[in-house]
Design a protein that fits this description.
alpha+beta; 2 domains; six-stranded mixed β-sheet; five-stranded antiparallel β-sheet; 9 helices
Length: about 350
């Protein structure tokens, strides 16, 4: 279902930004540095003038060169620094413009969802970058935003905090039902947050559609697309002595990952494994130290610069061309895919 309709033109220093597309409820915006990503989201938020047409959930935000001012667009813009008011406390920042849209979630619910209770009386000057973004997200939700624009939500965060930030964003999306447009440079992050991907290159749309399909075909300099497996699931059990945590994936199999003491049993989690860490066998493997093996039929093979990307069911494996030839791989062939326990990482959880 289309949430955001764009037909925009904007003259920039090196090129003209030209975007004509329709987007759904969860979109990742990727492209090389200088491709026009920030300019596009600033146009949507009303922070940069453009000409054309923007329609959000049936409401026209821009028609020709006449557009609604930012405060009337009900678009929540969350830049990397949070853009908080330094003279206001966290509580007053969150409540700034509260209820402007008439259907904002309750303050207590937003505070609880973003774990802001310990921060409410603090000044933005005393917050970390991640904390500032949480406060900015809360402010956007309390203002009744009909769209959240997130700019590199995990930039500058260590892996653990990045994982928690992505988990929190997924929970907010599901809990409050607010559409997302997320600017990112990471393929795994795009797959974790976006059902669709919009690729920009020098102001032009280089790809737009279902996330996996667009990323599979992506060939843009400056966009790191190497093939990554992203799968959601729930924690089943912990074995601290054995050094593993068992996770049931929505895709079907149960997999073991390195022990994660901070994941509660039953908690939702998103895992990632790079395609280059997935082994392929044409016969059922035996006597392996790797704990995760599952079967699938090859659906596609693509060769590029001496490597072959093998797609089998929802999984991807990156092999050398010589290995693929030695295994006589072809579309439709049944294969066994193997991932070591330490081949999985917690992307969101």
């Amino acid at each position: 279902m289309s949430v955001l309709e764009l037909d925009l033109t904007l003259a920039l220093d090196r090129f003209e930004l030209r975007v004509e597309t329709s987007l759904g409820e969860a979109v990742a915006l990727l492209g090389p540095s200088g491709a026009g990503k920030s300019s596009l989201v600033e146009c949507i938020a009303g922070l940069r003038p453009a000409r054309g047409r923007i329609v959000l959930a049936g409401k026209t935000l821009l028609d020709g060169t006449r557009g609604l001012p930012p405060e009337r667009r009900r678009v929540g813009w969350v830049p990397q620094d949070g853009a908080l008011f330094p003279h206001l406390s966290v509580r007053r920042n969150v409540e700034f413009g509260a209820g402007r849209g008439g259907d904002a979630p309750p303050l207590a619910e937003v505070i609880e969802a973003l774990e802001l209770e310990p921060l409410l009386d603090r000044s933005p000057r005393n917050l970390s970058g991640g904390e500032c973004r949480r406060v900015a997200l809360a402010r956007a939700l309390r203002s009744g935003s009909r769209l959240l624009l997130l700019d590199e939500p995990t930039a500058g965060l260590d892996p653990l905090r990045a994982s928690r930030a992505l988990h929190r964003i997924r929970e907010l999306r599901d809990r409050f039902g607010v559409p997302l447009l997320v600017v990112t440079h990471r393929e795994d992050e795009a797959l974790a947050l976006g059902d669709e991907v919009l690729l920009l290159d020098e102001g032009r749309v280089a790809g737009c559609g279902p996330a996996r399909e667009v990323l599979r075909a992506a060939r843009l300099p400056g966009v790191a697309v190497h093939g990554v497996n992203v799968a959601a699931g729930r924690t089943l059990s912990h074995d601290p002595e054995g050094g593993i945590t068992l996770v049931a994936l929505e895709a079907g199999p149960e997999v073991s990952i390195p022990h994660q003491s901070d994941l509660a049993v039953g908690a939702s989690v998103v895992l990632a494994a790079d395609a280059e860490d997935v082994l392929v066998a044409t016969e059922e493997p035996h006597a392996l130290s790797a704990r995760n093996a599952f079967e699938a039929d090859i659906t596609a093979l693509s060769e590029d610069a001496g490597t072959v990307m093998v797609e089998a069911g929802p999984w991807r494996a990156l092999l050398t061309a010589s290995a693929a030839r030695a295994l006589s791989l072809e579309q439709g062939r049944r294969v066994h895919l193997v991932v070591k326990t330490h081949g999985w990482r917690v992307l969101a959880g």
